[in-house]
Fold these 4 entries.
Entry 1:
Amino acid sequence: MPPVSPFLRTAASYAWRLLVVGVAVYAVFSVLGRFHEIGVALFLALVVTALLSPLARVLARHVPRSLAVAVSLTGSVLLLLGVLALVGEAVAGESASLVREFREGLTSIEKWLERPPFRMDPGALGDLQARLGEYLSTHRSTLLSTALSGAGHLVQVLTVLALAVFASVFFLHGGDRQWAWFCAQLPEGARGRVAVAGRAAWRTFTGYTHGIVLVAATNAVLVGVALYFLGVPLALPLALLEFFAAFVPLVGSPVALAVAAVVALAAKGPVIAGVVIALIVVIGQIEGHLLHPMVMSWAVRLHPLVVAVSVIAGAIAAGVVGAVVAVPLVSVTWSVRCALRSHTSRPGPGSGPDG
């Protein structure tokens, strides 16, 4: 039997290791897929902890820790509910005028499409509206069942939010003690590396969370002010949509601004819509060349291609949730890798040249 070449032997040794790693990764993602609501709730709890831990620490200097955590969480929940109530009031107050402006806007858009250079047939537009009405009347039962299933999803969302708040209470109150207890349960030889990895991961996650909230708030303020001065209806709800959409890097903000452009087109005509589209370009440049590099410098500086691939891969794997989680997950993974590499290369006691 001829001897096996060293190259083939090395390739085979790497191949079975890759197979083992692949099976392990598949098993982890299968488990996460079955219990993804719990994973989302814990992720939200970590986000809340990263945002509120500075406030809780400041309050804990003057009041007991439990009261500081309660005040921080209660205040943030009341603030969120107040913003949502303000948005709901704005939508309710503008609903009548908004319907009228939309009807007038759709009529002007139809007339605009009938003129050069489009020269669309007026009958085609009327036929499109008739087909849309027919579709809605024909599929009314399907739409109703979809709405009912949406109510079931709402219950799931509320359950996830309740679990996130419950977990964030314990993370804010004693997350450091919980992590110390977890490290103490590990074999003694692994405790140091796990502690280093945990510190690096949390530092990166908190830096990214603070930075992305700053980016989202800046985008929302810019969009809200611009839409308000342009006279576009629903400026506050569209600004809130921009805030939440900014949590999906490179993708979410243009999508939210495209919705604002559609509203501007229907309510104010093509000129204002063109200004909103120009606003999309300007805010995209500010976000891509100023805000996001600053955020990544606080956490881990990732190449824009890595960010884009991570967002797309996360969206393919888990939809919107995957797109939101992808970049912080990649940032934390890379930070842990760098921290462990630095920890391994650092000479320990008795291992240096003099040891």
Entry 2:
Amino acid sequence: MVNVGAVSRQKDGSPLARWMLLEGEGDRWNVTFQRMAYDVEAAANWAEEYAHHGNKEAAQLRTGRP
């Protein structure tokens, strides 16, 4: 099992989205963890307006810290 975690709920200080690529065939598999930029400010603005505890969610999106 591989768990990349939430795409945008970072806790390591990086606001970049994270995802993984799982490639394989038969019993041979490779997992590649990736990070990529996305419109963090747009997501944070949405969180402030609509999310439960929106200010807290927005801060986490912007800083990559809980």
Entry 3:
Amino acid sequence: MTTTPASYRPVRVDAVLDSPLSRWLWLVKWILVIPHYIVLLFLWIAFVLVSIVAFFAILFTQRYPRPLFDFNVGVLRWSWRVSYYAYGALATDRYPPFSLGAEPAYPARLDIAYPERLSRGLVLVKWWLLAIPHYVVIGFFKGGCRAGWCSLGLIAVFAVIAAVVLAFTEKYPRDLFDLIMGLNRWVLRVAAYASLMTDEYPPFRLDMGGIDPAGRSRGSVGSS
């Protein structure tokens, strides 16, 4: 696996905590985002198919075709904006745009540096074998259904706690926001690595706060 100094990571995840926030809108956001969930269902099917095509392209050419890369970055961006609005953070009341683009005016942003070359060897193992330790960790962050029972992940639990505090105090706890961002940042870095978009192994580290302290990209990022 490839590692780099903490001063550089190819995945940058930034967000701004909006203020003021509605005290009660979070109770119905699960309804408001249903149109996004429907679109994202089809986008994620396409994401998987594109990743399979990219796998073979990398295996034979060491390159991730740029149009395919930009599309998958767009799906991750869209997903991150919806998650930030809904129960991945509940940190904005601005409705997410239906867009694969960068949308720099939206408070949740994601950029991934385009890799000029990727390892043929790593593409065979990083998405399943090397990423297993991270899958175990982010399983606790995201939750899910296993062996017939379902559970909320830490991210959703902390987001709801922040919303309850907001409902009674009119303030979103800043320390809790920083922690939620660190957890989401970890998940998105792993998603980019497992999706073959980078060879840089994600750090086992919570980089908390709205501004990514280790996301200064070398080179180009996914296009708008």
Entry 4:
Amino acid sequence: MADVGSAGVQGVAARGAGTDLEVDHTHGETRPWEIRIVKHPPRSESSHFRAAKKVAKKILEELSADGADAPYGPGPWEMHHGGSLWVMTESGWRMYRARVGIEWSMQFCADPAKVERLRQEAAELVAAFPLTLPALDDLGYQRADDLLNTPITDADSVEAWTDGLFNACVPMSNPHHSGVLPKAAGEHHYPWPTKSADFFKFDDFQLWVTLPDDTHVGVAPVGRRGSGDGRVRIVHARHGTPAGDALAQAQLRREMAVVPPDSPIALAAFEQQIPPGADTAATPPAG
């Protein structure tokens, strides 16, 4: 995990997109709050989830046997309730993400009518891949047809959908699933528009940069690769930190929170792309 020096937070707090942002006040809460961390029995797995995990592992075994990559990298995997629309194509198994996934704990606020729309959308997708249901049946998963064709009208059918194959089986490693920085940015804790870049960014770009206060910012280049532009835009920062305050102020002004190429944040983000010891992330444009 890249780290930045003491100038890192100042660089974030003082600059937006072409406009200096002065952070010259403090902010505190006048209404304190608390939560209770209580012991609870282990969460029991429904029969729906046990069956879904079993067939998902068989699908992943088939992918491995075919030399194909799992959707979000190698295992060991945990099954994330992230909207897992598995289909069998002419070239093998593929997984698409649903419009939204339903986390297990969130099913208790789920409106059946809204979950019903997710079921309809999943059924339309699977219908476009007619090899899917026979392939699942061959793997011993006889629940797929009922899941896709039974209207969702109550808490029981919401539970069946939530823990079924078409919602509950996005295979992710523990770090990508529920990890926290500095080790990894798990999907449960970091916004997906930023976190998703972990799966498509250049390997030599540092997406998450550690600040002197041990919080982290997610960053993105301002220009395309080879442009020579060494600035980075902060796209995620923890609320209540100097970086988070600067990002919020920039957003209120409809500006980007951009740090210059000589900022410790930019240097950390581009560390693997610039010469060792360079004092700026700006480089000559590619010819």
